[in-house]
């Protein structure tokens, strides 16, 4: 029996650590609702479909980044949100790995160097 894939949050933590190591400023966005610590108030977070991360690179580029486990696709709400951002001229990417996230942010990876061999 194959080992289960890590959770999306595990991929996200690895991606955030590597983007920050590369000098990016990474902001995690939380969508949905949450309750206050005392349970009496509902706190509304980012809108449904919002990307997982907003990444500011040292080159002045901003990338809205959706993190997915390998083989998973963005939801309908996420696709709609991505399309709206792209229509406004923003860069939106979906990443299943650290290398994909780095590439989306214009950061060279070991793989990109190997391609120029």
Topology diagram in text:
Elements: H1 8-21, E1 25-28, E2 33-35, E3 42-44, E4 53-56, E5 62-67, H2 76-87, E6 91-95, H3 98-104, H4 110-115
Helix pairs in contact: 1-3
What characteristics describe this protein?
4 helices, 117 residues, disordered C terminus, alpha+beta, 6 strands, Trna Endonuclease, Chain: A, domain 1, four-stranded mixed sheet
Number-wise, the strands total: 6
Number of domains: 1
Low-confidence stretches: 112-117
**Could you please say which CATH topology applies here?**
Trna Endonuclease, Chain: A, domain 1
CATH top-level class: Alpha Beta
- Work out the helicity level: 25-40%
Please work out how many helical segments DSSP would assign. Answer: 4
Q: Tell me about the largest β-sheet.
A: 4 strands, mixed
Order of helices and strands: HEEEEEHEHH
Strand content: 15-25%
Average pLDDT metric? 90
Q: Major sheet: order of its strands?
A: 1-4-5-6
The chain-level structural class is: alpha+beta
CATH architecture: 3-Layer(aba) Sandwich
The Rg value, from CA coordinates, equals 16 Å
Quick description:
This protein has 117 residues and is α+β, with helices and mostly antiparallel strands. The protein has helices at residues 8-21, 76-87, 98-104, 110-115; strands at 25-28, 33-35, 42-44, 53-56, 62-67, 91-95. Helix 2 links the parallel strand 5 (62-67) and strand 6.
């Amino acid at each position: 029996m194959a080992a289960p894939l890590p959770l999306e949050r595990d991929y996200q933590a690895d991606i955030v650590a590597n983007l920050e190591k590369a000098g990016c400023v990474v902001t995690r966005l939380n969508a949905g609702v949450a309750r206050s610590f005392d349970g009496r108030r509902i706190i509304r977070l980012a809108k449904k479909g919002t990307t997982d991360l907003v990444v500011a690179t040292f080159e002045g580029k901003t990338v809205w980044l959706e993190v997915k486990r390998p083989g998973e696709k963005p939801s309908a709400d996420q696709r709609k949100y991505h399309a709206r951002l792209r229509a406004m001229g923003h860069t939106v990417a979906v990443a299943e790995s650290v290398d994909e996230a780095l590439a989306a942010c214009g950061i060279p990876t070991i793989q990109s160097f190997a391609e120029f061999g």
